[in-house]
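=== RUN LOG ===
request id: a7f3
mode: sequence -> structure
chains: 1
length: 386
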Amino acid sequence: MSLKRQRSGVAAPDIRFARRFFAARIFALAVVSLMTCSFESYFVAAGEPVSLKDPMIRQLAAPTSAVVDGKPFREAVAELAGRSDLSVWVDRAVDPSVRIHAGQVGPTVYLALKQLAATGQCVVMPIDNVVLIGRATWVDATTASLMSLRAVTRKRRSPPLQDLAWPEATTPTEALKIVFDRGKISAATIPMPHDLWPAKQWSSIDPGVATCLLLAQFERTLDPEAFPKRLVVIPMDRTRQYKVRYDVAEGRSEMVAAIRRVDREMSVRTVEAGFEITATASAHRAAIDTFLTELADDLGGPGDIDTPNVTLNLANMPADQVFHHLAGTAGRDCVIAADAATLCKQLVFYQAEKVTLRQVTDKVAEQVGVKVVWTDEQLLIDLPVK
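=== RESULT ===
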């Protein structure tokens, strides 16, 4: 569907501002009247609770183990999220080519993503079926923008989620057109700064959310005061407070405390099956982090060395470090015999998905010429019997 400007008696003005972006680009603010389709039906109603009933929360709480070393940031994050069928959106200000040396990550998908993100001084926030990864200020501003637009949405029916994709070297303007076309949204083009983006594929995403995520890459959002009748592009504001309902059986006091440490002006109200909190995006991020971290703590116990839940991306990593990471994943000590220590200094290269710890240690041992033995308490590394 082509993008057309609505014909009306009042011309839609262009508002311009003089803030520089990266290569001194000026991002023109556009005020656009919608045609036949309103964004109003493209946002989930505000107030949907955070709980284990949410499919994305369940995906993030799922157990996983991985050893990631030497992969570029963007590639490592995309691979880990992709294996869990999660859609991620990474802050464009983060260098995607920086090599990650995170070692062992897990024991849940959320903590694995959080640990990968931390290597790039980034944070993680799940919202609207997407996991945001980026600078804390950017993640919080993007989250606040999405929630502010939710709050002014009048219709309460579920949005038509879409699968969206664009090829390598797509410009932001082209990406926005793809979102509008796929979502059958009739609106004039919003001018976007020129850039070339990597290929992207989103599964089951709200087109309205996708639009906001595209704008967020340039620190912009849609004005909730004009939305959904008009699209008015304005700077993002991470200080906005919004309500979130948390339906959790345990950990309420810890979550409230986490929010209060970040936002002293927060408010809490008890509701059926949980509680409702009004606070800033950074405070809600702290609450969700507390919730998902405690779920990981509840897993407890040593890792099962024969369950195929390990993913590795090893590149140029000493074998002894790999053995220590794998032993730690299983909750065991790693003991390397003196005679095998030199061999274990060799560098290994290994990539695998959904394999067992036993399979990984056997493969690494084969590469460097040592023998591995698992016991209930240790991973023993020694020379092979001649």
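=== NOTES ===
The chain is about 30% helix and 30% strand.
Residues 14-44+136-235 form one domain.
=== END ===
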